[in-house]
User: Fold these one by one.
Assistant:
Number 1:
Amino acid sequence: MLDVKALLAKILDALKTDYIVEEGTSGIWTYRKWNSGIAECWGYKTISTTFASWGSWYYISVTGENYPTGLFTLVTSVQGQLTVNDADTISSIVRRPNDMKVTAPNITGIRPTSAAGTYTGYGYWHTVGKWK
């Protein structure tokens, strides 16, 4: 019996074309595993928070979520963004990527002026690494 999937994989390998071998969703994440060994995932979560003071600056933080189990053997890049309704912020991630094979890093948003009250927003991540 003809195995179309195996035949297609052989053709793509011969053409040196990368292709997705697995994709899905898990928790907040959508992920893909590529035949070349690249793994990527992206996701977001909603937050409700208040700003805290840090000297003359104000900050909020969103806690990173666990990646799909076993997705990464190595993380090479993490991009993150924190957006908060009605309160402009500058976002940052501070950790070396390979320290984050299991959990996405926290994202901290800072602003130079106070912002009283509770704000709703989103933490976004896009992570790239290796699965094999």
Note: Residues 4-130 form one domain.
Number 2:
Amino acid sequence: MVEHMVMQGHLAEGLYILEEPIEHYRDRAVEGLRNSRLASQVLLTTSSRSDPPDFTLWHRRLAHLNPAALQKLGPTIEPHFTHCSTCILAKQRRTRSQVPALRAERPFSLLHSDSCGPLPASHSGAKYYLIFVDDYTRWTFVYFLKTKSSTESTLCLQETLAFIRSHYPQWPVTRFRCDNGRGEYDNEMFKGLLRTNGI
């Protein structure tokens, strides 16, 4: 077997420390990667000559590569570990909570919001839409926007709050839920409007 040295270093606490900066090895590594057997050569030559390569160690080093693929890299590698706790946790499904989320107990105590776009432009030039949904009644306010700017989204919220305040003063908006979109929600103008309305 012809060996091709890509990098040189020393072993310290289970890691190989390179003796020169990575830039020094870049050209050699690119050339070496053109050889299809490079991975198995590196795998075989970096391990001790007397001992076979440690399957568990290389399984972890190669981002928890599956055993069949790992055996293809080096013919002397024999899978001998019983389980990998990281792989088990990564593939384990979480149990879904069967407890329903608590709904609002009165109209407009919780307002949900989301935006969508860009979409094909409408006749008026709108490419986005912004919605506000009341958690209790599912009453929905829809606004069509030309941009996702903080100015437009804040004006939409202001209009919605003004409508609720003038038509239903006994039910003020107390909570607001959104996905914190950078353009439309996560800005000082929008947050300031929420603060001044006690939301």
Note: Residues 36-50 have pLDDT under 50 and may be disordered.
